[in-house]
Amino acid sequence: HACKSIPAVATPGNHQFNPKARGFCSSLLEQFQQKCVAVLRPELRENKEIEHFRDSEKNGNALGEQLLDPSTIEAARLPGRLEKLAVNVTSPGDNAKVNVVLDGAHVPFNLAAVLSDLSQDEKYRAPCIAVMSIAEDKDAAGLLSTMTRHDMSIIFTTVGARSRSPEQLKTIADTLGLLSIVMLDPLEAYQEALAGATESGAWVLVTGSLYLVGIIRAA
């Protein structure tokens, strides 16, 4: 065992005690304390690493967002979460490209964050046509209130029994001053949004439900 390999050391009560032995004891104790600190107090190491990071940051040498190039960020996104597409729309005598964003945000806080992030990009500052379905147990009024802060019109649709009635959603939108229509088939609603965006130069947002986003992605 490791303990058996340590040589016997003289103590003050032993006639063999001398300054050399005292120095050996001090050195051994110091090594033991250092090992205890390393093993039992890992937070000290973490604090040192934090301080090292802070020093690097002050010197402009910290590792940061420069490692996350746009392609890396896009590759890390989850499907249906700020998923950006450029969709080609063909109509008689015309061929246009429409910017489409798929995001299944279904609570007001998340939707507000999505719209805030998108507004940083000039191409999403144009008017928006949203295709939207909201589940019965979600805060429909809160979600739609968030949309009043932006230049939006909405096509309400449904994705099944869990969806709130599109007619009910339109009633809420009317009270908030939002322009909206109802189309029960989600794929038809999406095609209508693309056609409207082609004519007006708007972009399209599919939101309110991950189920809806899944239907559009699979189309």
Q: Based on CA inertia axes, which overall geometry fits?
A: globular
Q: Label the structural class.
A: alpha/beta
Low-confidence stretches: 1-17, 37-46
Largest sheet: 6 strands, mixed
The average pLDDT value, as a whole number, equals: 79
Q: Largest sheet, order of strands side by side?
A: 1-2-6-3-4-5
**Overall radius of gyration:** 32 Å
- Give the CA-CA distance, first to last residue: 69 Å
Classify the helix fraction into a percent range.
40-55%
**Strand tally, please?**
6
How large a portion of the residues is in β-strands, by DSSP E?
15-25%
N-to-C order of helices and strands: HHHEEHEHEHEHEH
Please explain how this structure is put together.
- With 219 residues, this protein is α/β, with parallel strands linked by helices.
- 46% of the residues lie in helices and 17% in strands.
- The protein contains eight helices and six strands.
- A six-stranded mixed beta sheet has the order 1-2-6-3-4-5, sandwiched between helices.
- A hairpin with a 2-residue loop joins strand 1 (83-91) and strand 2.
- It starts with 18 loop residues before the first helix and ends with a helix.
